[in-house]
């Protein structure tokens, strides 16, 4: 049965079975053949080319990883250095001591746009004869022929890594700085550039009088061949020597055009006459020869006028284009304007603020007073910049109103409100009272006025890396702050010793040295637990303490302690140290330390964070919820008056101190008078947090209240990572004369100068 069944199945499927057998046979025969062929090819061709994308297996012995060489990456201070970003143009003017007395000042003024990247090179027989001018470089070598090479060598030695283009010109040329910067902005530094006016006698060299533009790569090539160039300088004309040098070093001939841009220079008929004033002058990079100071100014005035006329024409053209384009915008979106960055979607309302600190509020005012102008006042007289700004707005509103409402005889302000919108504008709403021209009676009008933010108020700030080593300096008065100091040390261990190791701590105990044993012991303890941590304790004399010990307000005492601590600590710190001065009751986190590193720039800027002051907990019964209810994280306010936490470089502070007569001023006041920028900043979400009067035994209900506030403090520390400082409000108001508001959306800062 079975065999018959099998036979019948085979008969039915014979084609399939034959096909199957054939397939098996073919596959058995063919596969070995292919392998052999492949192997033969491989042996003939050598090892197959390595595929970059194929994973490579790397054998490593098991066990603990071998100690790799310590690869500590040293990051430079500025992102621009790290990314190889360079300035665009450095201009060098070949000049002489005689010219310094005549036309150089004119040339210096008319090229003010090129500052600070403008250098004058002179041959000074003795450097002492060079007056103290900031941008004059004197060479002691008096051989006139070599002057351009000295200049080129100086530029290459000092600025090769800092600038993309170098412009060399003699002092008998008027330089059209605007056209020059425009030209350079259109050129790519990735190609070699040797640009200028071709000398008539030789088509390979650029005239030095007409200006020579060299790219970084060309200057580098010249620098490498400088010996050859100096040996082969024999022509009486500078441009021939320089041109020969470029030709030899970079194999380039002078070209008046490159990358679609052309270089024009206008030749004047005589040295004493300015050339005919034609609009072509505005398109020329240089005009030469010009030697009289008056002619520099004439040319500058004329060229500036042509540029202004062109700008005005451009504005008209854009206006007309906008006008023509407006009907094509989608309906309801026609009023959508800049700044786009402040909106989530163009044309839609801005997103609601994240917290109450981001809420832009209207501040109402009458003609003399502002109501709730800040967190600290209910009513304050309008003074300073606010007053001036309001006066300007009122004058404009009054003039506009009188033109607009013909029957109005007088326009006066009844009340109003302003709102400061960072990065956009200052907005006013004015309620005006119009007195009728004829007869009595009046009407009320509401007017909205906007003062857009102008470009002049944007302060460019360098991007810096977070790599700087930070020295924390804790100034500790000898009594009354031990608990705070111990808490500070705990925080220092948690934040710095365990996470951010790029810090050092210096505790300076001001006053009776025998009273702070607990703090000394705690510091010693920390040092034992963390080998390699930089922890020091110094002592400073408490000079100038007022006679009855308790007479001084607490804020003043801390400020005095900080000043004395700084004086004692500075000699122990490296000259380029970045210092963060803190009071014992300040809280901070790693993010804050990084902010300090980024916001303090040597020689440019110091940082005065505005700490968040928590409200005093014992003073407000609602915060003593017996059921354990905790106050909100943000019950407090930013204390703009505190000056107890600040960051600066040692060298900057010493320079400021040297220029300061009274040695008894607090550190922030000393720095505020220095020619440095101060960054003041209140960060809502994170960073500096609020100053509350510290949990001190409250006046009346001492023990229980203290315990509660303590508990709360600790709970906050573990839960909120962004908590930063509890600063005690100080008694005297800040004298800083510069406020900078920071906006999240852009990298620009708004600076409000107050008088
Ligand atoms: C050129 O102007 C700058 C800034 O105004 C000034 O510092 C410098 O000393 C001037 N140089 C000369 C040579 O007048
Ligand atoms: C744009 O705003 C002006 C003034 O607020 C208003 O008169 C005008 O109707 C608005 N246009 C559109 C298209 O919304
Ligand atoms: C503005 O308000 C303040 C405070 O209420 C008041 O003293 C002052 O007289 C008012 N000024 C004017 C011009 O009404
Ligand atoms: C510290 O020393 C001063 C004088 O040297 C003394 O009056 C004071 O009692 C000492 N304080 C303590 C806590 O030992």
Automatic annotation (TrEMBL):
InterPro entries (alphabetical): Chond_GalNAc (IPR008428), CS_glycosyltransferase (IPR051227)
Chief localization: Golgi
Biased composition (Basic and acidic residues): 49-61
A Pfam family matched in the record: CHGN
Entry's EC annotation: 2.4.1.-
GO cellular component: Golgi cisterna membrane
Region described as Disordered: 42-69, 684-731
Enzyme class: transferase
Superkingdom: Eukaryota
Membrane disposition: Single-pass type II membrane protein
Biased composition, class Pro residues, residue ranges: 691-701
Keywords recorded for this protein, A-Z: Golgi apparatus, Membrane, Signal-anchor, Transferase, Transmembrane, Transmembrane helix
Transmembrane segments: 12-33
Span of the signal peptide: none
Protein's cellular compartments: Golgi apparatus, Golgi stack membrane
Similarity section: Belongs to the chondroitin N-acetylgalactosaminyltransferase family.
PANTHER family according to UniProt: CHONDROITIN SYNTHASE, HEXOSYLTRANSFERASE
UniProt-recorded name of the protein: Hexosyltransferase
């Amino acid at each position: 049965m079975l065999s018959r069944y099998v036979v019948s199945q085979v008969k039915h499927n014979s084609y399939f079975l034959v096909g199957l057998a054939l397939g098996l046979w073919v596959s058995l025969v063919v596969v070995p053949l292919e392998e052999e062929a492949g192997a033969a090819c491989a042996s003939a061709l050598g090892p197959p080319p390595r595929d970059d994308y194929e994973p490579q297996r790397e054998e490593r012995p098991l066990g603990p990883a071998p100690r790799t060489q310590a690869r500590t990456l040293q990051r430079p201070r500025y992102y621009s250095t790290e990314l190889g970003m360079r300035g665009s143009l450095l201009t060098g003017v070949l000049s002489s001591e005689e010219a310094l007395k005549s036309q150089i000042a004119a040339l210096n003024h008319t090229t003010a746009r090129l500052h600070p990247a403008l250098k004058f090179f002179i041959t000074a027989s003795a450097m002492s004869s060079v007056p103290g001018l900031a941008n004059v470089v004197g060479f002691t070598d008096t051989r006139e022929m070599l002057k351009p090479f000295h200049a080129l060598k100086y530029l290459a030695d000092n600025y090769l890594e800092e600038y993309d283009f170098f412009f060399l010109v003699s002092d008998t040329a008027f330089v059209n700085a605007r056209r020059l910067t425009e030209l350079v902005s259109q050129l790519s530094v990735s190609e070699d550039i040797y640009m200028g006016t071709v000398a008539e006698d030789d088509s390979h060299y650029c005239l030095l009088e007409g200006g020579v533009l060299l790219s970084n790569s060309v200057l580098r090539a010249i620098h490498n061949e400088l010996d050859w160039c100096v040996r082969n300088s024999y022509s009486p004309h500078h441009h021939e020597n320089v041109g020969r040098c470029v030709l030899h070093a970079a194999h380039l001939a002078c070209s008046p055009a490159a990358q679609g841009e052309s270089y024009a220079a206008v030749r004047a008929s005589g040295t004493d006459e300015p050339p005919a004033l034609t609009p072509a002058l505005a398109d020329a990079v240089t005009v030469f020869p010009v030697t009289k100071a008056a002619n520099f100014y004439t040319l500058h005035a004329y060229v500036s006028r042509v540029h202004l006329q062109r700008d005005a024409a451009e504005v008209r053209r854009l206006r007309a284009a906008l006008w023509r384009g407006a009907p094509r915008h989608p309906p309801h979106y026609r009023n959508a304007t800049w700044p786009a960055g402040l909106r989530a979607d163009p044309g839609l309302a801005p997103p609601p603020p994240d917290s109450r600190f981001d809420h832009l509020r209207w501040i109402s005012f009458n003609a003399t007073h502002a109501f709730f102008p800040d967190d600290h006042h209910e009513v304050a007289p309008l003074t300073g910049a606010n007053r001036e700004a309001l006066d300007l707005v009122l004058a404009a509103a009054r003039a506009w109103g009188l033109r607009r409402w013909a029957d109005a005889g007088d326009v006066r302000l009844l009340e109003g409100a302003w709102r400061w919108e960072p990065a956009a504008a200052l907005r006013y709403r004015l309620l005006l009272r119009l007195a009728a021209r004829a007869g009595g009676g009046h009407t009320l009008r509401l007017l909205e006025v906007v003062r857009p933010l102008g470009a002049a108020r944007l302060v460019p700030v360098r991007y810096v890396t977070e790599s700087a080593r930070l020295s924390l300096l804790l100034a500790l008065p000898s009594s009354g702050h031990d608990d705070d100091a111990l808490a500070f040390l705990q925080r220092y261990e948690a934040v710095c010793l365990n996470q951010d190791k790029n810090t050092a701590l210096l505790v300076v105990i001001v006053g009776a040295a025998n009273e702070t044993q607990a703090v000394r012991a705690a510091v010693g303890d920390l040092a034992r637990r963390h080998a390699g941590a930089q922890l020091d304790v110094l002592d400073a004399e408490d000079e100038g303490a007022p006679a009855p010990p308790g007479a001084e307000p607490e804020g003043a005492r801390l400020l005095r302690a900080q000043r004395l601590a700084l004086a004692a600590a500075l000699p122990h710190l490296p000259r380029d140290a970045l210092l963060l001065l803190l009071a014992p009751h300040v809280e901070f986190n790693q993010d804050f330390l990084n902010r300090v590193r980024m916001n303090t720039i040597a020689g440019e800027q110091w940082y005065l964070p505005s700490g968040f002051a928590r409200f005093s907990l014992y003073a407000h019964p609602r915060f003593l919820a017996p059921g354990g209810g905790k106050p909100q994280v943000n019950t407090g306010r930013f204390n703009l008056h505190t000056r107890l936490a600040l960051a600066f470089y040692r060298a900057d502070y010493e320079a400021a101190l040297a220029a300061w007569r009274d040695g008894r001023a607090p550190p922030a006041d000393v720095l505020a008078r220095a020619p440095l920028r101060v960054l003041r900043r209140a960060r809502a979400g994170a960073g500096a947090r609020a100053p509350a009067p510290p949990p001190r035994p409250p006046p009346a209900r001492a023990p229980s209240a203290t315990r509660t506030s303590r508990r709360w403090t600790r709970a906050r520390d573990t839960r909120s990572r962004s908590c930063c400082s509890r600063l005690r409000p100080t008694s005297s108001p800040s004298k800083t004369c510069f406020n900078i508001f920071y906006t999240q959306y852009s990298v620009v800062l708004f600076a409000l100068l107050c008088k």
